[in-house]
Amino acid sequence: MPKKKGAHLGFDDRCEIEDMLKEGASFREIARKLEVSPTTVSNEVRLNRVLFKPKAMPQKAQARCAKYRGCTKVALCPLCSSRAAACKRCGMKRCWDICREFDPHTCKRRERAPFVCSKCDKRAYCTFEKARYVASKAQAAHDARLSAAHAGIACEPGELEDMVGKVKGLLSQGQSLQAIWLTHRSEFPVCERTFYNYMDKGVMGLANIELPKKVKHAPRKEWADGKPKMDLAGRTYADWLALPDDLKLLTVQVDCVEGLRRNSKCILTLHFVRLFFQLFILLENKDQAHVKAALDAVEAYCEGVFEDVFPVMLGDRGSEFLDFAKIETGAGGSRRTRMFYCDPVKPGQKGACEKNHVELRKILPKGTDFDALTFNDVAEACSHVNSYPRPGQGAAPIRLASLTLPANLLESLGVHAVPPDDVIMTPRLLGL
Questions:
Q1: Any idea where the Integrase catalytic domain is (predicted)?
Q2: Domain boundaries, the chain
C-alpha cells in the first residue's frame, strides 16, 4: 500500500496489481489489499497498461476500420485506375493507408474493466490488439509522466520577463537572490529554488557569474545515482585493514538477503568469521530503523556482553547500514561496537559472509516469497544451516558457537543444534 494516504502507488504496489490481475481479481479486491480506492486501481491499470499486436495477427485484421460496413468513400486516389464501387474494395491500393477518416476498430471489451486481456475467454484466438499490465513498464510510464509534469517553465512569458527584469536590476545593486525573494516573494510567480533551476536551463537571460555566491561554491560530489557521497572517514575498508589482527579476527560481517522484488521483508545476516557461524534475523523492512531495532534486540539478548561479542562490524554500503552512529550506539547511549564499510562494488571484502549465503540459498532459493516467512521459519533455517558440517572445519558451526556466544542470544533467536542426520538443506525444510 502507499506509504501514506494520498501518496502515489509504488513499484511494490504495481507488482501486487500485476499478480492479482493475472489471478482474475477484481478492482475492489485489489483495492482492499492495497488499502486504496477502487478508482485508483482502475485509473492505474487503464493509464499504464501496454497494448501489443498478436504475432500472428493477419494484415486484414490490423487494418480493420470501425466504419467499414457503412463506408462509401470513392476517389481517394487522384487518378483512380480501379473500377471498384468503393475504395474499400479496391485491389490496387489499401484504403486504410490513404484515408484520413480511418478509425482503427478496437475491442469494446478491452475498454471496460479490467481493461486487460489476461482473463478474457477469447484471448487465444482474438485478432484485436491485446492489453496487459506489466509492473515495470507501468512504473516507467508513471515516472515519465511525473518528470514531464515538472519540466518546462511554469509561468507566463510576461510574468517571466517582468521577474527577470526586476531581479537583474536588484542584482546589479549587489543584492543576493535570497534578499530579493525576502522582499518581493509575493510579486514573483516562482520560488527562489525554481529561479535557480530556470537559470541552469538557460531561460532567464542570466549567467551564474552574476551570482557571486554560486560561483564561489563548487558543486557537491555525487554518486552516479545522484546521492551525495557520505563521509566514511575512519570507517573504510582500508581503516579496517589497519586494525590489530585480534580485532580483525573478532569481526562480525553483516549483510541483508532479499527475496522477491516486491517483498518488504528481508533477512539480516551476522557472520562470525572466527566461528564460521552466521545468525539470521527476519526484518519487516530493509531500512535503517529495522536494522537498528534488530541490533538493539541482539544487545538485550547478549545481557551486557554485546561489546565483547560484536567488537567490530564490517558491512557493505547499502542504505540500511549507512547510519553508523545508530549502529554503534547502544541502548544506554554508549558506544557498543565499531562499524566499517567495504569499498563500493567489492562484496569479496566480506567474502566469508557472502559464501555462507550459498548455504542459506539452498533452503531459501532466489524467487522465494520472503513476506510469507515467519520468525520461526528463519530460526529453523538458521539452526539447520549452522548444524550442517563443512569440509575442513572439524565441527559444525553451532557447536563452536554454543561454547563461545551467550546462551541467551541463541535461545532468544530460536537457534538450536540439529543432529547431523536430521539436517535438511532444501526448501522442503519450510514446506516451500
A1: 240-405
A2: 11-68+83-147, 157-216, 237-430
Residues 6+ apart with CB under 8 A from 344: 317
DSSP symbols for 46-58: HHH-EEE--TT--
- β-strands 50-52, 130-132 pairing: antiparallel
Which stretch of 4-18, 30-44, 70-84, 292-306 has the lowest confidence by average pLDDT?
70-84
| Model pTM above 0.85 | no
Strands 312-315 vs 252-258: parallel, antiparallel or unpaired? parallel
Residue recorded with cell 492495497: 34
Task: Give the torsion sign (CA, 33, 36, 38, 39).
Answer: negative
pLDDT digit string, tens, across residues 354-391:
999 998 999 999 989 999 999 999 999 999 999 988 76
Sequence-distant (≥ 6) Cβ neighbours of residue 292 within 8 angstroms: 323, 326, 327
Cell of 368: 522465494
The CATH H-level (homologous superfamily) assignment of domain 237-430 is Ribonuclease H-like superfamily/Ribonuclease H (3.30.420.10)
Tell me if the bond preceding 347 is cis, omega within 30° of 0: no
Beta strands in 203-288, from DSSP E residues, in sequence order: 252-258, 266-272, 277-283
